[in-house]
Design goal:
Elements lengths: L1 H10 L2 H24 L5 H20 L4 H22 L3 E10 L3 E10 L4 E9 L5 H18 L4 E6 L2 H8 L7 H12 L5 E6 L6 H9 L6 E4 H5 L4
Parallel strand pairs: 1-4, 4-5
Antiparallel strand pairs: 1-2, 2-3, 3-6
Length: 234
Amino acid sequence: MREWVEDVMRELDEQEITVFILGVWAMWEMRNKVVFENKVVQIDGIVKRVRELMREMDELEEGCLQSAEKGKSRVIAQGVAEQRRILGGYEVVVSVDAGVKEGMGMGIGVICRDDTGGVLWGWEERRRQEFEVRVAEVEAVLVGLRWAMKMKHRRVRVETDCKDVIEALQGNTCGRSDFHIVIKEVLDLRSCFDFVTWSHVSRNYNRAAHCLAHSCTLGGGNFLDGSTMQGRSY
């Protein structure tokens, strides 16, 4: 069963995993209604409940819920985060981003967090080369995975806000372009880990890696430990 779940999780992005977990949550709630209240809920009731939970989580993030409902939704949100970690099977989340500016080369930012969201380490570098944006983005994924391997992480979830990269990695896309050459390097690197999965996230959720990629200066790169990262604001 776990292997099946892990295979499924590799194909889902962050939003789809959330919907999956909330669906299971809603079905469990409806199951309890049948067992303890003798109330049968149809499938449309489950769908409605999933939508309600998603709306409550969105409102929680925006700070719009009343205090009474906020506590309930926070418990749900924490449960979803924990189940996302368990079902996803990852040990750390590696968030990456690249920034390309004409005349300024390419910047790469990497942030690694543990399963509670705590920052473990980061990496920033700027190169003189100027790549096509999607090539730079997948190069950032490659750098992030290489650092995860160097730090001896075995189960990794990689997050990027570049949808082209995620679609290519999930589809095992082949080709002869610079983009596909780096995609192949990334896919080949998976064998160095017990588990690797890819996830597309919004720019807002990738803000820390984005800031590193766009603020770093030319040089050989800069490794940032967790304590250094905690002192930064994004």
